[in-house]
Amino acid sequence: MSSQMIRRAEAGTTEAAWVRYTLIGITLIFLFLFLVLPLAAVFAEALRKGFDAYWEALKEPDAWSAIRLTFITALIAVPLNLVFGIAAAWCIAKYEFKGKSVLTTLVDLPFSVSPVVAGLVYVLMFGAQGWFGPWLQEHDIKIIFAVPGIVLATVFVTFPFIARELIPLMQAQGNEEEQAAIVLGATGWQTFWYVTLPNIKWGLIYGVILCNARAMGEFGAVSVVSGHIRGQTNTMPLHVEILYNEYQSVAAFAVASLLALLALVTLVIKSVAEWRHEREMKAIGDLSPENVKAAPLDLSLKAAS
Amino acid sequence: MLSSSAAAAPAKRRAPARVLPGFNITLGYTLMYLSLIVLIPLSALVFKTFTLTWDQFWTAVTGPRVMASYRLTFGASLIAALVNVVFGLLVAWVLVRYQFFGKKVVDALVDLPFALPTAVAGISLTALLAGNGWVGQYLEPLGIQLAFNPNGVVIALIFIGLPFVVRTVQPVLEDAEKELEEAATCLGATRWQTFSKVIFPSIAPALLTGFAMAFARGVGEYGSVIFIAGNMPMISEITPLIIIGKLEQYDYAGATAVATVMLVASFILLLIINGLQAWQRRHSGAPV
Lengths: 305, 288
Description:
The complex is a heterodimer. Chain A is mainly α. Helices cover about 80% and strands about 0% of the residues of chain A. Chain A has helices at about 5-10, 15-45, 50-60, 60-95, 100-110, 115-125, 135-140, 145-155, 160-175, 175-185, 190-215, 220-225, 235-245, 250-285, 295-305. In chain A, helix 4 (about 60-95) runs parallel beside helix 9, helix 6 (about 115-125) packs across helix 8 (about 145-155) and helix 10 (about 175-185) packs across helix 11 (about 190-215). Chain B is mostly helical. Chain B is globular, with a radius of gyration of 24 Å.
């Protein structure tokens, strides 16, 4: 190929400079308007009356109890979905069985169900008029308009997050390493702990933090089952709504700013997990068959560290 | 493939022994947890619906206020998803193909709507677009109102749906082979022809999947919309809010009926998305 042709071919896979800059410009303006401005507005509105007013709003006992309830909810919901996510990913990714695609679709179902509908189904089960309503009342157990209902609704809404992250990852990695470990005499648990887990580590972290962000921020489903009792069944997003509807704008945005910070932390952890995962994938990719002879030393060093 | 079929040949028709342990326990646990958290509660909704007479059901789901809410919910989701197809493709393209300062930050920021609680997005967008907001104050003199009417619903749904399109198109664009484009150019195609005839067909399935996902999410969205919509009956009331309204009036039958319509809609959308994803995998030649 002549050098002229190569140049033409390369030019053919990108656009003229003015097109490039226009497209980058439009993209940045669009993202600025739709992502950066809303994020900045949260903090600007929260600090509108100065730092003292901001601090006062956060020190309020109702705000504190909302923060506490949000953390408790996430602390129960995320581990439950973590165990489920690993179990579901193991059986879906590692084996072939009848009805696998149906099962995968059902795992995704909570993603597409409206949060409001998710809240409603628990009211129909455990509410005063629901299936178990009379029995629960007899035994003086409260689920709807109480903390258990909030946790259940949150578990439903965040149900697929970790499984969804792990299934494609474990499918892509195949079974060879695990089979080798089993053949060499490892127990199932050892195989999972020393072979599978290191491979899916970053995907798992990513899934957990996304699940956590959604669990702490869920609004629609929780709003249906909570009953909005101040200081008792208000999570942070619900507290934001109440304050906002009472025209306590600064206080509402102050609590909202904590949730926005949580979102930012989530994005940072996610990016770091992604970069680390890419780097590890690249390191493995470099171990192509012709390089393998030089590899053992490298591998043993990694295993030791 | 060859060796495994050869090994399986002697033991005719018997499934190959599973080397990895844990199938029964993980499948059992998955099915149990799925039933307890998702399937049984959702079936409660279906059973409750069957206790209604057909007339009760029909009046509940076709009342004029409810019909207006369907039009708004599905219409606004459709417009927002279409906007997201255009801008989502643009963002994905720019992030994959061009280098510029701050690209990694921009890339990370695209996921903000996934991570930011919907209620926060709702009050923040409202504060921006209200008459005295950062953006609203410049639009009001021009006679443009983006908050407290159906426009606000569309804006909120664009925010919510954007990452779905970007994140489905982006990996497909990254995997696209440059050789095809080089070949097209060497054969005399203009850049636009290369894009519309070579690149676009290869990302079309992903784009359609992203569209369907953004649409499905928009139909069910509640938190970000209710703050900015103004929630006027017949004009800017979304269907999830109708369900909440009926619940607050202790009209459980009505709420259940409308929720069933929503559930059926989301189930159909889920099946469509799954079909699209399978098509996309076949399209890219990866194993299904």
